Amino acid sequence: MNYSQTVAYLYSRLPMFTRVGASAFKKDLDNTVALCNALDNPQTKYKTIHIGGTNGKGSTSHMLAAILQKAGYKTGLYTSPHLKDFRERIRVNGKMVTKSFVTNFVKQQKQLINQIEPSFFEVTVGMAFSYFEQEQVEVAVIEVGLGGRLDSTNIINPDLSVITNISLDHTNMLGNTFGEIAFEKAGIIKPNIPVVIGERHPETDSVFIKKAKEQNAALLFAEDNLKVSNVSKPSTTLKLDIVQQNTPLLETLHLDLTGTYQLKNIVTVIEAVQELRKKGYHIADEAIYQALKNVKKLTGLQGRWQTLAKKPLVICDTGHNKAGITEVVQNINQTAHEKLHLVIGMVKDKDISAVLALLPKDATYYFCQPQLERALPAKELAEQATSHQLKGKTFNSVAEALAAAKTNASSNDLIFVGGSTFVVAEIL
């Protein structure tokens, strides 16, 4: 098989969560353990940092990888899902895994894959761990796929665990309350390994405190120690200071990820850096400054409050649950515009009503659906939107919806594209 045939095999033969949803989620680590045992457990050959949470774990992973890279470490980065290219999931110093490695890995492991019938995600985790070993990375930043306790990535023994936050998402698999979801996320807390929690929440703090105590793991709430101040948005960056216990720690930082929700993530990232320094990592302040100014360039991160065009201004964002859309709406409100146009599509297993309730009623809507089995049909989305006083038309594809929005919009209007990671993927 060549590369395109190999990726087609992975997509078609293996249960894939992004395509079919909960049925692809394996409720134990047996397949991952079997696969990594066959690979001689590559994940034990380098240092790792494990990053979970509901929202922000992708941005946090990319920021931390950029900092480690600028600090001189050969850095692996494993994230999911991808937006345009399967290889986005596996990077070393920002460069995607080679096509030849993907092809050879599947060819060599095909017999085992057919034997144990792993999910798509389980295979990609094994592939990433193996590639990082081959490339002799010094440290790999590993983003949790879904949950934590039963996630395939949870076979690593990291130097640091990070949990960004908890909000209601994937409730059909992780639980219907903040506490139940926190229990699953807390599953990445390991014996004697420090854990940084990005945000406090009255329903989750006790879950993390209990789990950390059981594991004898040092627990740090980032927002207790660090704050942002002097925030401004000059041009294409967020400008800010980081303050530690009322004392300036890092002044005049520039971050090229401009969504205001990144202010929470950056506090988590800097707290993680502080902990890594305690573990012996050599990370100079200058590495932090240089990395945060160039996260997108260093790591290839896309889809986070990303500007696609101007006049009219077109912005996309992958926020897709209640907490994520809350942040999106806040950023829309802070962005100067005359009329607002929203190109929106969603997948079936989200809390559709809760998201629609947050969206502005004074916008023109272009309802669409991404091209995957889990997509909520555009007509159904439009019908549900009507009960929330959201008005617009339906379109057969994301591209058609965006084209219509561009046709209707004046040069001083704002077009926002989102509602699902997969909607954003189709217009990048």
TrEMBL record:
Pathway: Cofactor biosynthesis; tetrahydrofolate biosynthesis; 7,8-dihydrofolate from 2-amino-4-hydroxy-6-hydroxymethyl-7,8-dihydropteridine diphosphate and 4-aminobenzoate: step 2/2; Cofactor biosynthesis; tetrahydrofolylpolyglutamate biosynthesis. Its EC number is 6.3.2.12, 6.3.2.17. Keywords: ATP-binding, Folate biosynthesis, Ligase, Magnesium, Metal-binding, Nucleotide-binding. It catalyses: 10-formyltetrahydrofolyl-(gamma-L-Glu)(n) + L-glutamate + ATP = 10-formyltetrahydrofolyl-(gamma-L-Glu)(n+1) + ADP + phosphate + H(+); (6R)-5,10-methylenetetrahydrofolyl-(gamma-L-Glu)(n) + L-glutamate + ATP = (6R)-5,10-methylenetetrahydrofolyl-(gamma-L-Glu)(n+1) + ADP + phosphate + H(+); 7,8-dihydropteroate + L-glutamate + ATP = 7,8-dihydrofolate + ADP + phosphate + H(+); (6S)-5,6,7,8-tetrahydrofolyl-(gamma-L-Glu)(n) + L-glutamate + ATP = (6S)-5,6,7,8-tetrahydrofolyl-(gamma-L-Glu)(n+1) + ADP + phosphate + H(+). One of its GO terms (molecular function) is ligase activity. Residues 51-272 form the Mur ligase central domain. Residues 303-420 form the Mur ligase C-terminal domain. It is an enzyme of class 6 (ligase). PROSITE patterns: FOLYLPOLYGLU_SYNT_2. The keyword Metal-binding applies. Belongs to the folylpolyglutamate synthase family. Functions in two distinct reactions of the de novo folate biosynthetic pathway. Catalyzes the addition of a glutamate residue to dihydropteroate (7,8-dihydropteroate or H2Pte) to form dihydrofolate (7,8-dihydrofolate monoglutamate or H2Pte-Glu). Also catalyzes successive additions of L-glutamate to tetrahydrofolate or 10-formyltetrahydrofolate or 5,10-methylenetetrahydrofolate, leading to folylpolyglutamate derivatives. This is Dihydrofolate synthase/folylpolyglutamate synthase. It comes from Pedobacter helvus.
